[in-house]
Design brief:
This protein is mostly helical. It has helices at 2-8, 15-32, 44-52, 56-78, 104-116, 120-131, 140-157, and strands spanning 34-35, 38-39.
C-alpha cells in the first residue's frame, strides 16, 4: 500500500469521509431544485402530458417553476467549492467549465410553448434569461442561441 500512497499521494479526504461529504453536498444541491413535492426533474412527464392535452397555460406555469428551480440548484452548486479534490472531479457530472449549469430542456420547452401561443416577446425573454445562465455541457446552448436569433426576428415582425 505504501507504493500506492507514494504514487498518488495521500487523499485530502479519506474514503468514507469523502463519500459522506459528497453525498451531503449533493443532497443540499438537490434540495435547492425542489418544487411542489419533488425535484424539478420529476415534472418532465407531467409537462409532456399537459402539452399533449393542449393545456399550454398550465404547462407554462409549471415550466416557469422548473426554471426557477434549476437556476436555484445551479446557484447552490456554484456557491461553494466541491468537497471533491481534483482526482475525483470526474464525479461532478453536470458541471460545466465554469460551474454547474442549468438544464436547457425547460427553457426550450417554454420557448416552444410561447411561440405556439404567439407570445413572441416572452419567447425572446426566456431565451435571453437562459443566455445569462451558467450552461450545462451539450448541444443545448447552441440550439437555444440559434432559436433566440429566430425568436427576435419573429418578435420584431409581430411588434
Amino acid at each position: 500500500m505504501n507504493w500506492f500512497k507514494r504514487m498518488f499521494g495521500k487523499p485530502r479526504i479519506e474514503g468514507d469521509d469523502i463519500e459522506r461529504k459528497f453525498s451531503a453536498q449533493m443532497a443540499e444541491i438537490r434540495s435547492a431544485g425542489k418544487i411542489n413535492d419533488g425535484h424539478y426533474t420529476d415534472s418532465v412527464e407531467k409537462i409532456k402530458a399537459l402539452k399533449r392535452e393542449g393545456r399550454n397555460l398550465e404547462a407554462i406555469e409549471l415550466l416557469l417553476k422548473c426554471i426557477d428551480a434549476t437556476e436555484k440548484e445551479a446557484k447552490s452548486a456554484n456557491a461553494k467549492p466541491s468537497v471533491l479534490d481534483e482526482r475525483f472531479s470526474f464525479l461532478e457530472e453536470g458541471r460545466s467549465e465554469h460551474g454547474w449549469g442549468v438544464a436547457p430542456w425547460y427553457y426550450e420547452q417554454l420557448a416552444i410553448l410561447y411561440r405556439k401561443e404567439k407570445q413572441y416577446q416572452k419567447e425572446v425573454e426566456i431565451l435571453e434569461r437562459y443566455k445569462k445562465q451558467e450552461k450545462a455541457p451539450g448541444v443545448g446552448p447552441q440550439k437555444l442561441a440559434d432559436r433566440l436569433v429566430k425568436a427576435k426576428e419573429l418578435a420584431r415582425k409581430h411588434a
